[in-house]
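SEQUENCE-TO-STRUCTURE ENTRY
===========================

Backbone structure tokens: a row of integers, each naming the local backbone shape at its residue.

Task: work out the structure tokens from the sequence, keeping to the layout shown below.
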Amino acid sequence: NDKVFFSTIDGYIGEIDLTTNAIKQVPALVRGDIEQLYYDSIDNRIYYTINNTLYFLDKERNIEIDNFFPPIKSMLRIQNKYIIATSIGTFVYNSLTDKKPSFTLTSEWSRALEFNPTNNTLYFATNKGLLIISNIFEKGTASKLLFKDIQIIHIKSGLPGSRTFCLLFNGSVIEIDKNGVSEELFTLPENN
């Protein structure tokens, strides 16, 4: 994709075209802090949340999804299922209009999600550590918890060599290889 999407604290969704450097902004359906933003490359839509309501932007048209979700922190679409991380857990929905999830992946407060297609693994940043689940839609799914009782701020995956990186609340940047082995790379300096 040759575009970068962003949101502003006053309720605008922006797009930067990396080819032309053109910036386009569209107001959200309601004014407010956009709590999460997700671009779905399958349906070519931007999903966003304001005040616990999920919306999507389709060709500059804002549409509210008629459903109630707990406060959404992050979301992904994998194999035509929606993985939604919230303050009361992470859930799988077959459709965003389903009133109930098809199943629960964790009941821990989840902050961020990242899927690494190279090793078919889903990573959850939670308040209790980094939860790792392989083959999430298959029977006998295995899970592992890294950094027990340490809050994770963010995760990024899909980089060369199946590496995944996470940022801990203490500023440590950790690399996790495709076998789940972790190594601290460095700690971010504190701002005084």
Remarks:
- The chain is about 0% helix and 55% strand.
- The chain has a mean pLDDT of 87.
- The longest strand covers residues 152-159.
